[in-house]
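[audit] Reproducing an earlier prediction to check determinism. Same input, same settings, fresh worker. If the tokens differ from the archived copy the diff job will pick it up downstream; this log only records the rerun itself.
[audit] input (243 residues):
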Amino acid sequence: MCPTTEGGALPTPDHKTGFLQACLSANILTFGTYTLKSGRQSPYFFNAGSFQDADLLSAIATAYAHTIIDFLADNPDLPRPDVLFGPAYKGIPLACCTLLELRRIDSTKWGRVKYSFNRKEKKDHGEGGGIVGAALRDANVFVIDDVVTAGTAMRETIEIVKREGGKVVGFVVAVDRMEKMPGANDDDDEPRPSAMGQIRKEYGIPTASIVTLDNLIELLGGRGSEQDMERLQDYRRRYLASD
């Protein structure tokens, strides 16, 4: 059952609330002051590398799997993925455990789907190459990663898949920060898209996330400290993307 909400709003799906609760209980999602690659001071931080035990891996795999299933149901014209691709390094265990969960949910649809990941440095001995796992040539590839801020890693992944002869048909991350891309004057009031929105525009690739900043603020309502809530809401107002 999904938790009920007031005012007739749609309830938050169980896999979203379960994921966020797991993140909070294990300090994977923390609050404070964190400097991002963009130079912004963020009031929260998500560290996918802290999914270190089986229970936590199960929680994130379940959340990714249901996000992908819902995403494909909402986009019936998308080709079904042949390969789940996890960019090195954090994406590697995410792709593996998610594919296992998808297969557990529906072995008929997912039992023959493969996974692969890239090497940071190409191997010049043995089997060689820059890809481990399934070959990407002529494959419809669904990419799984943790979080996107500037979009640099997303672009690199898309180019890796393209170079290997595959096609990225979808991109899913754990957390959509919903913030606009940095500008020359980052404190300006100019509307700008998010990194994920820019990727959708540039490449025509649909994207999805397990949760968004809005989901986080909604879940913390009445649970988090008043100071944390105020800082999250201020950050959203200041940097909210135009898309």
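[audit] rerun output stored. Observation attached for the diff report: The mean pLDDT is 88.
[audit] end
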